[in-house]
Amino acid sequence: MNPKTPSQSLAILTDIVLPSETNPIGNMFGGELLARMDRAASISARRHSMRIVATVSVNHVDFNKMIPLGSVVTIEAKVSRAFKSSMEIYLDVWIEDRESGVRSKSNEAIYTFVAVDETGRPVSVPELVPETKLEKLRFEGALRRKQLSLVLAGKMKPGEASELKALFIED
Ligand SMILES: CC(C)(COP(=O)(O)OP(=O)(O)OC[C@H]1O[C@@H](n2cnc3c(N)ncnc32)[C@H](O)[C@@H]1OP(=O)(O)O)[C@@H](O)C(=O)NCCC(=O)NCCS
């Protein structure tokens, strides 16, 4: 399999916030944003792997800003690192000002997807080669985030998370 770059998996999802997607004070439900991000991330993972993909973990979500009714929300998703069958997807979420059209960042999130065959078994994905400074930074942090996610899910012993431990323990 030929290696791929993050830009080859870019998925951009732009949509408006409708009344049924808001809470009683008129801001977007967190769950609605999670679902939209899951959709964008799945398209990105599919573009990278060209396989069926499934969400295996939602690793990190920051809800930094309220997103009011009527906002235009744009989600940009890209694969930040590919492992054997799993891919980390980094999402940047923007809202745009109605009058000026200026975009501001509302939040970031990290999801993990696994490529599977028709029977649901994990299959290998192409390697990812980061290009920009930000892509390289996200790529470098992805292994320790994977280890943290596996430890939290009870799928890895903390003692085996070498990359993660290095964050806390100096030589
Ligand atoms: C995704 C799935 C096929 C993985 O199967 P599995 O038997 O756990 O396979 P593995 O243990 O080999 O894990 C596959 C990969 O996922 C990674 N993974 C598993 N759990 C993870 C977690 N919590 N966080 C990060 N990565 C994880 C593994 O490290 C492995 O990565 P690698 O192959 O790149 O090294 C299986 O867990 C599944 O079907 N889950 C349900 C998916 C789904 O329906 N999602 C939508 C929910 S509504």
List keywords for this structure.
171 residues; Thiol Ester Dehydrase, Chain A; binds coenzyme A; 27% helix; alpha+beta; globular; 3 helices
Task: Provide an overview of this structure.
The chain is of the alpha+beta class. It has one domain (6-130): Hotdog Thioesterase (Thiol Ester Dehydrase, Chain A, Roll). Strands 1-3-4-5-2 form a five-stranded antiparallel sheet. Helices cover 27% and strands 30% of the residues. The longest helix is centred in the N-terminal third of the chain and has 20 residues, at 30-49. It has helices at 30-49, 133-152, 162-168; strands at 11-16, 52-61, 72-82, 86-96, 103-116. The mean pLDDT is 95. The chain has three helices and five strands. The structure holds coenzyme A. The site of coenzyme A has 18 residues, from strand 2, strand 5 and helix 2.
Structural topology:
Layout: E1 11-16, H1 30-49, E2 52-61, E3 72-82, E4 86-96, E5 103-116, H2 133-152, H3 162-168
Antiparallel strand pairs: 1-3, 2-5, 3-4, 4-5
Helix pairs in contact: 2-3
The protein binds coenzyme A.
